[in-house]
Amino acid sequence: MTKLKQIFGSVFIIIALAIFTLSYITYLNSYHKAVSSVSDFGFLFSGIFWFFVGIITGAVFFALGLIWVWPRGAKWLVDRGKGFYK
Length: 86
What we know:
Layout: H1 2-36, H2 42-69, H3 71-80
Helix pairs in contact: 1-2, 2-3
C-alpha cells in the first residue's frame, strides 16, 4: 500500500510542477498580448487570474504529493515553524 501511495504522490508532484509551468506560460503570453495591444489590459488581468489559480491548484497537488511520498518530511516541514511562532 505504501508503494502505491508513493507512486501517486510522485505523479501528483509532477502534475503540480506542470501546472506551475503552464500557469507561468499563460501569464507570460497574456502579458505579451497586453503589451502588444496597448489599450486592452483584459488579457493581462486574465493572465494574472489564471496564474494565481494555477499557483493555488499546484500548491495543493504538491502538498498532497509530498505528504504521500515523504510523510516524515512533510511533518518536519509543518513542525519546523512551531518554535518561531510561540
